[in-house]
Amino acid sequence: MLDILRQGAQSWGIKILFGIIIAVFVLAFGMNRVQNDQTTVVATVNDSPILFRPFQERLQRSLELARSQNPNLTAEILAQMGFKRQILEQMVIEELMMQQAAKLGLTVSKEELAKEIHLIPAFQNESNVFDPASYQNVLRANNLTPGKFESEYMRGMVMDKLRTYVGLPGRLGEDQARDFYTYGRSTATISYLMYPWENYQNQVNATDARINEYYEARKANYAVPARAKIDYLLLTPATLADPAAVSPEETEKYYAEQKEQFKIEEQVKASHLLVRVDENADEESVEKAMQTIKAAQKDLAAGKSFAEVAAQYTEDPSGTQTGGELGWFGRGRMVKPFEDAAFALEKGAVSEPVRTQFGFHLITVEDTKSAGYENYESVASDIANIIAEDRAAEILQDRLDQALEMVLVGEPLDAVVKAIGLKLEIRESDYFTKNQGPRDLPGLSPENAQVLFDLPQDITTQSPLPIADGYLLATKREQVAESVKPLEAVKAEIVAAITRDEALKVAKAAADKDLELLLKGETLTGATVKETEPFGRQGTINGLGMNQLLATKAFETKSGAWLPEAYAFPEGYVLAKAIQVTPPADEDWAAEKELWLTSLNERAEEQTMQAFVADLRAKADVRITNPALLEN
Fold first, then answer.
1. 239 and 469 in contact (C-beta within 8 Å)?
2. Homologous superfamily of 2-169+622-630 in CATH?
3. Which residues pair with residue 470 across a beta bridge?
4. CA distances from 298 to 191, 303, 308 (A)
5. What pLDDT is stored for residue 263 in this prediction?
6. How far apart are CA 22 and CA 1, in angstroms?
7. What is the rounded distance in angstroms from the CA atom of residue 162 to the CA atom of residue 106?
8. Burial degree of 224 (CB within 10 A; 0-12, 13-18, 19+)
9. Residue 171 gets which letter from DSSP?
10. Burial class (CB in 10 A: 0-12, 13-18, 19+), 185
11. Which residues in the chain come in under a pLDDT of 50?
């Protein structure tokens, strides 16, 4: 019911109360044996009581919600969180809000309440009209009475009115919202000089002394964690299965009875090239894209292969490497215009330009598959595996018991394999660490990976460890202690790091020297000046990378002026000159105005409400009258 009601109740106050009104009324969580009746007072808020029963209901509901989101929550974790006190604090805040609403004369009439309840889809019939019978049935199914439900729903509406009342002074007008929008959506452009560290690497030298110093200071970076290796035996339907024991008659019968399992849809194997253009692009952009498409068509007509042409023209990032190959796909996998064109093509043909929201495509179909069924011969071996694994699943527990009996009396894994027979084999894992279990054991939990790592040398697990589809038995074969890579093994890496670090220093010194001249109004001869694309205040600059300080200064510096320092990027240091700051267009504001007004006002109201509630809480007289109820 909670999910259904949420469809019709979006207000903040009502959302808070759903945890109460849908609560399970008879269960308790971890309560010390206290009197379980309506008169037990947990706490008072300005002399108003919070009673045991509502607290119990809220606690139980919150616990169910928390555990549904995190099944691993234990009593210890909940105790560390102060879970019970958190729930009580929520109820204290709500009581303070209701008290304040009463002081302000905020109420909800019966007519308002009825109107809101009538809008809840859970209580409406197929014609979307409130149905009293549905109302009664839904409440009854959730152990609620109309009186209880309406009381709590009205409480939520009152709190929502309080939130609106308190938040009104913090709401922004359109001009204020436009200022925020302009600030957030403006872009800056700079010209810049790059001083790549690679240009200065020949001016530095990584001496032996510097290499040793670097290595000693960063030995932790070169630590090799302790590692282990195991021999293991998998007991799963797949490892116990014996497909050779399945007769042709059995596979034929399975195929006949389960034929729908082998149904295949109509498919095409296609390639494409894409020239991107926005679906709302202007005529000039569309024409430019079409010229590129026509050039590609001309090359295809001249005899070039589709893969070659796609690699040259496509703007699909993966297409340049694959020749535009998309592989096999059925209907419903691609956008409709693309799908329709692909499935209409003959094998080997190339489509006319196809327009989608991504741009213009040229498509070629390499092969096709008609809808139908996979033939028996192509799936017979797969069917034999299915039948064999089904049989193996039935004997898995017996084989596991047999293996455990042998392991517990000290038999090695190879003896287990011989006794069980079939095609079981002992496998050897790669090295693994305490924090990263064997890569070839899917479904092994971190806890069980730890069990394997902690096994003593040559000891076999005394109980099976669950993995995907079955169980694992393992013997520790090797343990390698933690170590540090020797200097010689990492010397080349260290030399590269020192060279880069020192070259960056030289690059910065060169940039600083040139900046002094530029700030004096002098010009640099032979310097290559580049210009960025427009960028925002977040700090990411296309072609350079991330530098928040540069981005901030670019918005603050007047056009034509050099920024006051050299800025670091992965490639080197940059000197930058402000070109311009461009505010967003009026039409962009018109398109996004409502979204920004709503978002900014919600944030402003929330901040105002948080401050208001914090003030109420600070001034409130809250007394816990029954501390035993909050003990874990």
1. no
2. Porin chaperone SurA, peptide-binding domain (1.10.4030.10)
3. 467
4. 38, 9, 13
5. 87
6. 8
7. 7
8. middle
9. P
10. middle
11. 1-38
